[in-house]
Amino acid sequence: MNLKAIAPLLFAVSLFSNAAFGAECLGDQQSKNVLTFEVVPQFPPSQIFSTWGPLLDKVGKKSGLCFELIVPKDIPEFESDFSNGRPDFIYANPYHFLVALKKQKYNPLLAESKNLLSGLVVEKATNPETPLKSLNGKKVAFPAPNAFGASLLVRGEFAKKGITIQPVFVKTHGNVYRSVIAGDTAAGGGLRSTLDSEPKEIQDQLKVIYTTQKFTPHPIATKPTISENIRKVFLQSFINCADDETCKKDLAAVGIEHPKKVTTADFNNIEELHLEKYAQ
Question: For 105-153, where are the alpha helices, taking DSSP H only?
C-alpha cells in the first residue's frame, strides 16, 4: 500500500474525528486564539478537509496561527454563516465575497493570480456540436443559484443572448456532470477545475461547448475584526508556501498555486455585471 497516496485521506479522517469533539487546531498548537476558516462547499467535505487541512496546518505553523477548518453542509449554510459574520476567514467565490463585503465588511486578502476563473457549459460528448441557442427552452443543470462561475456567469450569458432555459439546481458540480450524462438535463454549468477533478470516465462523456469571460478567482477574505498584523503574517506565510517544495502541492490542491494580495478593486468588474439579478 502506498502510504503517500493515502496520507491526505488519513489527514481528512483525523480532522473529521477531532472536529467532532471540537479539538482540532491546524497550525501552531501553542497559539492562544483559534481562528475559524470556512470554505465554500464546491467539493465533498472529505475532499475539502484533505486539501485545505494540510495547507492550513503548514501556513499556521509558519505564521504562528491556529485554525479551525469549517466545511458547511451546503452553499445556503455557507451564505448564512458569512452573512452573519461567523467565520474569521472565508474562502468564497467572487459573488459571495461581494455579498460578504456589503453585509459584514469582509476584507479580501489573497487569490490565485494566473489561473483566472470562468464558467463553462458542458453537454454529452456524443451530442452533435450545437450552439448555445439550441438549449432554448431546455433544462440546464447548475450546482446552486449563487455559484459564481458555474451558475451566475453562465445564466447571465444565457440571458444576454436571449436564451430562456429551465435551470435545475442539483447541489454540487459533480451532480451537474452526472445529470448531463444521465440525460436528465440537456447541458450543465461548471468550472474547469471541478471538471478536471472528475474521474476520466466522467470527463470522457462530456464536452465543453461554451466558456465565459475570465475573472479574478475565489479570494480568501477576513472579518473586519481580524487585525492587520494577523492578515499580514497570514498573507506572507501563504505566499512563502509558493517557494516551499513541501507546500507547493498543497497550494495546487486548493487551486491557489500563484497567490497574490488582492483588494476590492480586483472585483470591480464583477460588480459591474449586476449578477444579483440571477441570484437567489
Answer: none
Query: One-letter amino acid identity for 33?
Result: N
How many CA atoms within 13 Å lie on the side-chain side of 232? 3
Give the number of other CB atoms < 10 A from CB of residue 73.
Answer: 10
Q: What does the pLDDT look like over 107-134, one tens digit per residue?
A: 999 999 999 999 999 999 998 877 899 9
What whole-number distance in Å separates Cα of residue 89 and Cα of residue 110? 11
Distance CA(149)–CA(212), nearest Å, equals 8
Residues 24-57: pLDDT tens digits?
A: 799 999 998 999 999 998 888 999 999 999 999 9
Q: For residue 66, what is its C-alpha cell?
A: 491556529
Q: Is the CA virtual torsion 262, 108, 96, 160 positive or negative?
A: negative
What is the DSSP pairing of strand 107-112 with strand 259-261? antiparallel
Kindly write down the DSSP assignment for every residue of 93-125, as one continuous string: -HHHHHHHHHHH-PEEEEEESSS-B-EEEEEET
CA gap 68, 129 in Å, rounded: 47
How does residue 10 score in pLDDT terms, banded at 50, 70 and 90?
Answer: very low
- pTM equals 0.81
The owner of cell 517557494 is 243
Q: Tell whether the model's pLDDT for residue 155 goes beyond 70.
A: yes
Q: Which DSSP category does 219 fall into?
A: P
